[in-house]
Amino acid sequence: MKFVIVFVALFALAFAAPADVEVVESRSVVEPESYDFAVKTSDGTSKQESGSIVNPGAEDEHISARGSYSFVADDGVTYTVTYVADENGFQPQGAHLPVAPEA
């Protein structure tokens, strides 16, 4: 059930766009223990993600996801963020994001 709730929430975010923006490409594959989707809109925004349940049925069951999203900012530059979201939290990377110093 957690899988369905997370997937619906992520899919809703992908479609949360202003009314004058149209979806120009969309695909999704939903399996019992995994999913994969991609969405592109007419304003240059795109998102793709795939995920799966790790350790199904175990006490430490969780979803592990990998993906990326891109958008055109007000300055006209396209920004892209790639990420992993797993038992270690949300881990984004992008050329425009700050990086913590090495410990």
UniProtKB/TrEMBL annotation:
Database matches in Pfam families: Chitin_bind_4
Residues of the signal peptide: 1-16
Keywords associated with the record: Cuticle, Signal
UniProt protein name: Larval cuticle protein 5
Segments of this protein annotated with the region Disordered: 39-59
Biased segments, Polar residues type: 42-53
Gene Ontology CC: chitin-based extracellular matrix
One Gene Ontology MF term: structural constituent of chitin-based larval cuticle
PANTHER family according to UniProt: ADULT CUTICLE PROTEIN 65AA-RELATED (PTHR10380:SF218), CUTICLE PROTEIN (PTHR10380)
Name of the encoding gene: Lcp65Ab1_1
Domain of life of the native organism: Eukaryota
